[in-house]
Amino acid sequence: MNLILLGPPGAGKGTQAKKMIEALKIPQISTGDILRAAVKEGTEMGIEAKKYMDAGKLVPDSVVIGIIDDRLKEADCEKGFILDGFPRTVDQASSLDEMLQKSGRRIDHVVSIEVPDADLLARLTGRWMCTCGASFHKIFNPPKVDGICDLCGAKLYQRDDDKEEAIKVRLENYHKQTAPLIEYYSGKGLLRSIDGTGTPDAIYAAIMAVVNG
User: Fold this and answer.
1) Is there a catalytic annotation at residue 159?
2) N or C end: fewer C-beta atoms under 10 angstroms in the chain?
3) Domain 2-26+79-116+169-212 grouped into CATH 3.20.20.450
4) What residue segments make up the domains of the chain, in order of their start?
5) Which residue among 19, 36, 88, 105 is the active-site one?
6) Cα(157)–Cα(133) distance, rounded to whole angstroms?
């Protein structure tokens, strides 16, 4: 089973991927993770990627594709994989198709977890941190006293990337990148849209109904 998991920041992709790995016995392939692993292992593609990462530049598609190709050839991917965070563009999707074709494989389903932006904003801007390392959420895990850490009594703060303006920019970028991808996979009859506003268990059940259907 070869799957792609799409979804905006805060849609719960990580939570769902963990459950899917367990049920399907296939690995989750996260672009960020494998880029870091390739750099650490000093593979040919990892050395190439490091040049761009050290310069603060985006790693080019050709290098990312090469690293994905290397990863998908590993033994744990024989029965399938879940791609998370890749492809991000139609060009990457097209390169992925060509790469899989060479090894006689193809994508079975593209699962898109869809959540309205207003819900995502509430989820993502609700996180507050403490200098002691504790983390709270206004909706899911509120502190007993608003703005104060339960553990040490210090004042809670919000990270810059959890602030509303930053989240709006992330969502805007996601929609710009992903809208063409959704169209691309819809055209191939591979897109499966899942309502991501329910409980994690309900969302998981909907995903597995698609995957097993």
Assistant:
1) yes
2) C
3) no
4) 2-26+79-116+169-212
5) 88
6) 11
